[in-house]
Amino acid sequence: MTDGNKTFNKNILIAVDDSDNARRAVSYVAQLLGGVSGFKVTVLHVIPEAEEDYFATTAEKEEWLEHYKEKMYAVLEACRQILISAGFAPEAVSVRSPLRYCPSMAECILSERDELEYDTIVLGRQGLSRSEEFLFGSISSKIVTHARNCTVWVVE
Amino acid sequence: MATPIGEESLRKMAARWLPSGQDATPLRIHRDTTDFFRVEYGDIVDLNGRPYLVRHNAKEGRFGLDDEVKYWVKRAIDLTSGEQKIIKLVFQEKFKAHVGGIEFECFRSPRKEARILDLVAGHKHFMHGFSVHDEKQNVVRILDFIYGAPLSKYVENLKSDHKSYFFDIFPRILDQFMECIRAIQFIHNHGEKHGDIRRDHILVDRQNGDYRWIDFDFNYRHRENIYGYDLFGLGNVLVFLVGKGDVLLQNLYQENHPAMKTLREEDRNIVFHHRIVNLKKVYPYIPESLNQILLHFSKGANRFYGTTGELLEDLEALDKP
Q1: CA distance linking residue B321 with residue B304, whole number of Å
Q2: Dihedral over Cα of A50, A52, A54, A57: its sign
Q3: Out of A53, A103, A131, whose CB is closest to B102?
Q4: A56–B92: do the CB atoms touch at under 8 Å?
């Protein structure tokens, strides 16, 4: 695809967590592009490095991390299966779960995009109330505001 | 590890503060403070060879409730210097907090408070102190005692009516509060949250009038905006200071205040819906520029402050009332 100046690649990054909103984003891509050749999808969950302060001991922190990783590996595999079932070739779907220090999840997701050259990011709308967005911020709003050189799909 | 001081020497050091005639009662000396309920009035806490005489548990009151005893926070005397200190023992607490119906995870972290104490050493807008490990490696914080009232009490106790307060006293308060915001900006710039920004967590130091932040052990699990909850706290304090207290919908209704005719849903606090943020509708002499800043914390806000810098920029641009 070109716009005359820029060629867009067919690499799609779906950023997920363990929410229904994230599953909807995966289903959307599955329904829209399943069986269409040429697209490559990566399902991403950035594992936020747990705050040191949250745990009384290092052992407690490690136990939490192991449990968290196990849960998210299952989520990522389930997302992968949704895409394959919809017609994506297994080799066209990958999962990724880097462990990163993430004061801002949106910035972490965007830096993954920069490293791996995806022209499209897909994520589910979190459905936050205004008060929640005010108090804690919104990942999707921040990605929409800060993303450069790529297209963002926010799935309702 | 320093050599422990013997009981007789400790008794002599503490004699000034202990009731007379209790020489026969053995002194209870704690070097392991894990069970903070056992550390009581008249006990000695020996931290790395430096003894502190425990006087009583600290209390904290809020919203008209009776003061709540904080058993892990002791008022004490440093027996080496004779100075009053606050000793904070380790209380690893995790709980779900609810603010305006929103649930989020909070916890106490002695290590965070210890880190911030190091960071703000010598900064005049914070409490001061240091941390030390007891023999079980609990991170105990030893804080300088600040003589002075919480900012909330100071403002509530002012006798003047709102208009006199706003024109005569508030400009000085705002200057000091802006210093407090810069102080929070300082810790944010170093990657730390305050965690529990409230109007009673600023003490007005009686010695020099400086406003000083206290209590850094509280923390919240942030989501996208790491400092969002701190900024919400700053906004609430600002609205409180401009209003000379909370301006509550219920009070205006009971007074049949003329503002009731014009107040709308969007004029309320974005989280605490019973508080009014659009104070110009209640006090028309509040300048529009200041009121616009307050409205960033209202239900009708189109834009939120993302950083302390953005809030400060708007406050610095104000013409003083």
Answers
A1: 24
A2: positive
A3: A131
A4: yes
CATH superfamily membership of B148-316: Transferase(Phosphotransferase) domain 1 (1.10.510.10)
What is the model's pLDDT at position B4? 74
Query: Does residue B22 register a pLDDT over 80?
Result: no
Shortest CA distance from A140: residue in chain B: B224
- Considering chain B, tell me which residue range(s) the CATH 1.10.510.10 domain(s) occupy: 148-316
Nearest CA-CA distance, residue A46 and chain B, Å: 13
Q: How many CA atoms lie within 13 A of B95 on its CB side?
A: 8
Q: What is the pLDDT of residue B2?
A: 66
Bridge-based pairing of strands A11-15 and A120-124 is parallel
Q: What is the reported pLDDT for B64?
A: 44
> How many other CB atoms are there within 10 angstroms of residue B29's CB atom?
15
Domains, in order of start, for chain A: 11-99+108-155 (3.40.50.620)
B-interface mutation test, from A136, A142, A143, most B Cβ less than 10 A away: A136
Considering only the beta carbons, identify the residue of A52, A54, A139 that sits closest to B224: A139
Span B86-110, average pLDDT: 88
pTM of the model: 0.89
Residue pair A143/A123 in contact by the 8 Å Cβ criterion: yes
A136 and B299: CB-CB below 8 Å?
no
pLDDT of residue B12 exceeding 90 = no
Q: What is the mean pLDDT of residues B219-228?
A: 88
Region of residue B282 (phi > 0: left; psi between -120 and 50: alpha; otherwise: beta): alpha
Quote the CA–CA distance of A105 and A53 in Å, as a whole number: 19
Adjacent-strand bridge partners of B131: B141
